[in-house]
Each structure stands twice: as C-alpha cells, then as structure tokens.
Amino acid sequence: MKRALIKLHIAVFLWGFTGVLGRTISLNEGWLVWWRMLLTVVTMWILFGATGKIKKISARQFLTIGGIGVLLALHWLCFYGSIKYANVSIALICLSGSGFVSAILEPLFFGRKINIKELFFGLLTIVGIFMIYQTNLHFSTGFYIGILACFLTVTVSILNKKIVDQYQPESFTLYQLTGGFIGLSVLMPFYNHAFPAITWLPAGREWIWLIVLAWFCTIFTFILYTQALKKLSAFTMNLTLTLEPVYGILLAFVIYHENKDLSNTFYIGFLFILFAVFLQTLSLARKRPGTAAAPLPKWWQFRIKGQK
Predict the structure, then answer these.
(1) Among the residues of 195-233, which ranges form H helices?
(2) CA distance 125 to 129
(3) Which of 53, 109, 117, 185 has a C-alpha 20 to 30 A away from that of 275?
(4) Which parts of the sequence belong to the EamA domain (predicted)?
(5) 104-148 pLDDT, tens digit each
C-alpha cells in the first residue's frame, strides 16, 4: 500500500511538472506538442508491441478513437499556448474550471439531471478564476486560450467515457495518441503558416526536456498510475490527483518565480478553488470508499464522476 501511494505521488508530481517543461522548452506550442506526441507514440508502439499489449481494432474504431485523440492534441496545443501567452500558473488555474464545465456538459451527453452539488463546487472555481482574471488582465490572451483548453479536456473526457470500457487501457491510449499525432501532423503546416515559428527543431538541451516530457511525464507516469490503481481505493486516487495543479503552481513559483508576476488577488482566487476542492473531497469522503479503479488523468482522460 505504501509503495503504491509513493508511486501515485510521483506520477502526480510529474504531471504537475509538465507545465514547467512547457515553459522551459522554447519551441512554440504547436511544435512542442508535435515533438512530444512523436516521441511518445513511437516509444509506446515499441514498448507495448514488445510486451504484447497492443490489440488490433477495426479502421472504424481507430477513426473514432483517433478522432478523440485529435481533440486531445488540440487540448495540449491550447494548454501549452496558454503557458506561452501567460504562464504556468494561469494555464493550470484555467483548467480548474473543468468541474463547472463537466457539471453542465455531462448531463447533456449522458441524459441525466444536473447535480446541484457538482454545479455549486464548479461555480466556486469559476468565481476564483474570475477574480484572478480581473486583476491579471495583462494575461488575457493566455486566459482565453486556457479556457478553451478546459472545454476541450472536458469534451475529450466525456467522449472517452462512452467508449473506453470496450478497450484495454494500453491499446486505447496508444491508438488515441497515434490518431492525435496524425491529425496534428496534418494541421501543423496550416498552424505554422498562421503562427510562424522561429524554428521547428529543438535546440541543445531541449531534446532532453522533450524526452523527459514524453518518457517520464507521459509513459512512465502511465505505468506508475496503472500500478497504483491495483492497490489504492478510488477515493485515495481522487484525493491525491487534486494535488496536481498545486504541485505545478508551486514548481512554477520556485523555478520561475511566477508569484512576482501575479497580483495578490491571485491567492484569494486560488483559495476559492482550493475551497471547492476541499468541499468536493468531503463529499467524496462521506460516500463509502470503494476499491474500484480511479480514473486516469487528463493525459488519457479516463475519468469518473466528480474528478476534475
């Protein structure tokens, strides 16, 4: 149990580190995501192929899974774009609005009533985001892109919920990222024309950071997370996952001193968001803790009710 918890915290810490790497790598958001997906997909085909974890699917199934993967690639594009136009803290704060978006969109997709409690928790995060936005207007462009990233990640999550149980996690992840990479590759000439990049090739140490992003923050965390799933309860997984944006923001403060670029209201707005997370945690704690598998994080979008 203790080893599983350590693995989970390492995985969550590495996910929080992805935002910092997005700022460290000088490539624009388009080429950064393209290289990340290329390194990840090639490595996963080799790794999962060697271990016999790839299951064949039909062309129609690939188009469905891969199409969602394109949306995932666009989410990453917007997430790193938010970092480039604002900073890591703003990008992560925008993603915290996914609870509110989920509370509205999921009932529409699954034909259920809106959960008032979920909607209330989501509204608290929106209040926090709005407070931060109002006093950091110089980051407006980053905010808008970050909100779009939030909508995209919720959309991917909802679409995945409809089909994910039909596939093995390794195969589903591989085909989704492969489809996303193919779609992004088709998009990149147009994107690069609209937003010309100084260079499309990583320079020097940026190769190392891209490998860290692809191998450690994507593939390695996937392995750690799936191992932890077998030992820990869904409640423990959900509770620990709430630390991801906290880790990311603290890392941005320590490494890039982003706290100097943010107004004092940022902390008040952030407290609103943390309060919403706290209330949600209490809500989960009152339910009987089960041992069912918790969701995979936003990189794969395997989510359960209540997870942001």
Answers:
(1) 206-211, 221-229
(2) 6
(3) 109
(4) 6-133, 142-279
(5) 888 888 788 888 887 888 888 899 999 999 988 889 999 999 999
Q: Yes or no: say if 95 and 146 are a contact pair by the CB < 8 Å rule.
A: yes
Q: What are 64-113's pLDDT values in tens digits? A: 999 999 999 999 999 999 999 999 999 999 988 888 888 888 888 878 88
Which residues have C-beta within 8 Å of that of residue 283, sequence separation ≥ 6? 117, 121, 306
* Residue 294 DSSP code: P
Continuous H helices in 25-168: 29-50, 59-85, 88-95, 98-110, 116-134, 140-163
Q: Take residue 10 and report the two structure tokens written for it.
A: 């390492």
Distance spanning both ends of the chain, measured CA to CA:
24
pLDDT of residue 8 exceeding 60, the answer is yes
- Tokens 């509205």 belong to 104
Give every CB contact of residue 195 below 8 A, 6+ residues apart in sequence.
28, 30
Cα angle for residues 54, 55, 59 (degrees, 5° grid): 115
Q: Please, are residues 69 and 124 in contact by the beta-carbon 8 Å criterion?
A: no
Q: How far apart are CA 308 and CA 286, in angstroms?
A: 18
Angle, CA of 284, 222 and 16, to the nearest 5°: 70
Owner of token pair 């693995």:
7
